[in-house]
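sanity check this record:

:::
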Amino acid sequence: MRRHCVVALALLVAGVVALGASGAQKDPLALVLARADVPGAKLTETARGPAAIEQGLRRMGIRARVARYAYVEVPSSSPHEITVTGVVIAVGGSGDARRTFTFLKRESLSRARAKALPRFGDEQLATYIVDAGGDVLARRNTIVWALSVRAAGAKELSWAQARPEIVRYAAKQTRRVGAG
């Protein structure tokens, strides 16, 4: 009898711990690309926000934590340097993450053409803005992230030049996000 009580208590504690861990939001600031992910680049920003994204999602009934980053003077395989910027959004559940992804996807498609890339998440969208650069938006479980690659300065960046850079940094972002 005593053994059954101990086993039942252990299972109850394990269930409560697992339930608490599954509903906890990850810290998006811990998931942004780090200096080691972008060697030779100059980090200009890692910060919480932008608040506009959090507020917009809150109006949709989604509680989110957001972090952003920006690297400039990034050495690349294209003829000139690039900038790599991104946003990581952590929400409480995969349903909210799907809604967040769908909202951002609709916004992205309103201004760019969809392109194909290797898979980086449960859902994703890659886009290209003619001569400006490319973006990837991805969702993995409860994390939604976006990454942009642009030519530094007033230079142009073709899809053929942007694609390998997007793939390189999106793969690193995917590793940082992990299982989401």
